[in-house]
Amino acid sequence: MDSAASPNLDVATPERVALSLPVAGIGYRCLAYLIDVFLLFLFWVITYFTFTLLVSDVLGFLEGLSGFTRTLMVVGVFATQWLYWTACEVLMGGQTPGKRLIGIRVVRVDGSPVGVLESAVRNLVRVVDFLPGLYATGCLSMLLTRQHRRLGDILAGTLLVREERIDLDKYTTPAAEAPAVSATTSRVRLAPEDVELILAFLTRAPQLEPAARTRLGTKLVDRYGGLGETERATVLASPQATESFLRTRVQAER
Amino acid sequence: MATPLPAFVARRRPDWDSLKDLLARQRSGTLRLEELRTLDVLYRRAAADLAHAQTFYAGTDVHRFLNQLCGQAYGAIYQPPRERLASTLAFFRRDFPRTLRANGAFVAASAGLFVLGILLGALVVLLEPRGAELLVPENLRDFIARKEMWTDGILSVAPPNAVASGIATNNLTVIIVTFASGILLGLGTVFTLINNGVHLGSVGALCVHEGMGPKLFDFIAAHGPVELSIIVIAGGAGLMVGQALIDPGELPRGQALVLRGREAVKLVLGCAPFLALIAVVEGFVSPGDFFSSWMKAVLGLALGALFWTYLLRAGRNEPGGTS
What are the chain B neighbours of A75 within 8 Å (beta carbons)? Predict the structure, then answer.
């Protein structure tokens, strides 16, 4: 319901349905980047200790091979600095491990998955986005563009979309106990927005302050209940009864 | 008439759940043919549900859920073709040289800028030797003052393959920066090209001035032609990007940029294996006295000629459309 605040990527599919995917902002991207960098750092720490502790000192053949190991190291630096991002994005459907953990994905501006060329472009331009340090250029570009894209994204024609974890169970959870008042007696039909509002309240109710929980529950009952004086009193007797009534009210909509 | 929201969810949810399962299996690559057909059917149903949700339940969580589900399924169904070995070979046999020929003007302009830089650097140092203090880094000046090649220094400390790999990453950085800085209206590329040219020109002129010309030639001859060509090609790619930004033609800037970016990155990716090869030459052949100067020169000229013959000839007579 925050669709007005965050920009969306609108896609017209060949099935003539308009998809509208939420675009990932600078915060999500930053978190994903930090996770990726941490993983690479971990990789280097482990490699370093494996080599220094196990290989070189114990067996002592690293001196003989030092040219070879240095080549390996340079290849490793190359891989972690350049290959990691592109290889992951191409093989993992637009996600690096960090992006997967945060739940964001690289797609082309038309919503289709990225290919090798796009991924290569956006990751080569990383150098420029990093200028003059700490992604200053990239962050500026993300703040100024409508869909939060850095220069690499603009050149490659890609952007990042968010994947939310949406819980559909809340629509179908049965009411906790039999309601004191039959909810089917009142006859105002609920619009989808009303259903959504009540469900949002029910999801959050357990975490609310007791006073706020009672106050909001009372408001909702008054608005959608359509009850008489005595029925209203029984329903409002406890928060559990209120919520149970509201849930049945929503369930009765089928 | 719209069904109430909870009833709609309860009725359609099994389909959505199985579509989600199929998508997860598709991602891990364990999907049989009949399941693929089911995926297609379920995707179409979900798309219909999305259209329904758009009309009757706009802005609800169900709507957002369906958006996301259809987005993932859309991504899975309309995937770009996988890159296979055959397509990589085709890229080097046809696509890369063709793209280069189609954008020859940019490569030529890039070469022009690079040569301009070399001439500038060389002129400054030849006319006013003290200019070298400005243009040539201090550690290089120390080497030249002692009449030593700095590359000999590297070689005596580190084994040759370490030199080769070090040189490879350094060249790689130059090439990536030259290309990527094209996004700064092409100015970044122009600057990098001229800057590298001036650097090369001034070092060369200083060496000649100090009587080390033959030694420098000895070092550069074997790998120079191909390596400088690759830098020039990367510069051409950067200029293509800059041109799309400044003069996008009839397309909107964003689209022109994406179109040009895809072409330009082909030039950079195509150069990668040649860069690796020439780094090996630079690490093993160029330093030291294992090969005489004229052998290095012949090798360098031969490699350069081969490289450019490939670029200008490959894929010219084969079918497959124009690039």
Answer: 165
